[in-house]
Amino acid sequence: MPLSFTRSWSNEELEALRATAARFIETEMQPQDAAARQRGHVGHALWRRAGALGLLCTDIPEAYGGGGGDFRHEAVIHEEMARRGLTGLSNSVHSIVAHYLLNHGTEAQKRQYLPRMARGELVGAIAMTEPGAGSDLQGVRTRATRDGDSYVIEGSKTFITNGYLAGLILVVCKTDPSQGARGTSILIVETERGPKDDEEGGMHRAGFQVGRVLDKMGMKAQDTSELFFDGVRVPADSLLGGREGQGFFQLMGDLPYERLIIGLSALACMEGAYEATLAYVRERQAFGKPIAEFQNTRFKLAEVATQIQVGRAFIDRCVEQLVAGQLDTATASMAKLWGSEAQGRVLDELVQLHGGYGFMNEYLVTRMYADARVQRIYGGTSEIMKEVIARAL
Ligand SMILES: Cc1cc2nc3c(=O)[nH]c(=O)nc-3n(C[C@H](O)[C@H](O)[C@H](O)COP(=O)(O)OP(=O)(O)OC[C@H]3O[C@@H](n4cnc5c(N)ncnc54)[C@H](O)[C@@H]3O)c2cc1C
Q1: Of 92, 97, 126, 129, which is best to mutate to test ligand 1, by the most ligand atoms within 8 angstroms of its C-beta?
Q2: Residue 362 — φ and ψ, nearest 5°?
Q3: For residue range 320-347, what is the model confidence (pLDDT) as tens digits?
Q4: Is the pTM of this model over 0.85?
Q5: Is 258 a catalytic residue?
Q6: Which of 67, 211, 298, 337 could form an SS bridge with 58, CB 3.0 to 4.6 Å?
């Protein structure tokens, strides 16, 4: 009997959304992927198209322009992209940003930004990491200083997903450097970049500059950029939630959501890679027979299939817990740790089963292998996940 990848949390409505997502991905994303990987971003038009099809902000209430669903609606879209190795449209970061606004923003902030994010007019990014501060976010040096009715932002950020295309960036800043974590706030910065597809983009807010689209090992179609803030002035009501010093509290509150996205995308990627490899080894011949018939190939695939099935049970339970509002940070960190580490191991084995073709970028498993590496690093490294889990023991 073939291995089936059913989800305990799915239903007819979600499978219909999955079919819509798959159609969009196959007809509009996949054909452009090679060009997007060369260019380092997917362009604004694809974001607006995803918005028009109702594929963005699916778990944001309808009152704010979203789809009115829950995390399962997001999950089917993340899964369909991950199983095809498509990373260009970082819907995950976009959704994370929408959730910061939903969970911590003022009513005016939600009304101002969420509908435009759902339409794909504003691409969302979150800028925490700096050249000198990654795992240890207390070391953030970007400063926001109150000046009359404005804040003035000085500093720089790096490795920012969606940074090149972003129209809305949540910038983690120090508003009171003497206060440590309690002196950290999140500022909402509209970049004022026009909805253009050209290399230069539109006009930027004065003092804001997007650096290079960074040249990465994998996830080539996803724009990751440096951002520079040189006296960027934003209205005082751009403070997320309207109160200073809430930044760390806001960041910590949404961690289960972010970490589960990485865990579940890792699993969906393994599923897609497994299916592609199964087809490959049945086709490819060596020593007069398909390589699928060698005991080593059968055993490796049996191990991978077992990991996927066991992982599915855990990830599905995490999805159900998140939807019920019961997923704690330590368990979500386990999902991220286990998913990203298993993804690395599994992709390594599946590349091996492809022989030399597994080293060629035209093969799905090759691109997935390169893309998988960062899953253990961003969103909190594996070592930081272990710290978080260990603290809860
Ligand atoms: C492709 C990509 C996309 C990204 N997107 C974003 C984004 O959208 N927004 C954003 O803000 N950031 C983003 N990041 C940054 C990412 O979150 C950081 O790179 C990550 O958190 C690690 O920080 P660092 O690079 O400064 O490494 P460091 O913190 O310098 O860590 C280096 C090593 O030290 C280890 N280490 C650090 N502290 C400890 C400890 N206490 N115990 C044990 N080991 C430790 C780490 O695990 C790691 O192995 C992205 C990064 C990449 C590569």
Answers
A1: 129
A2: -75, -15
A3: 999 999 999 999 999 999 999 999 999 9
A4: yes
A5: yes
A6: 67
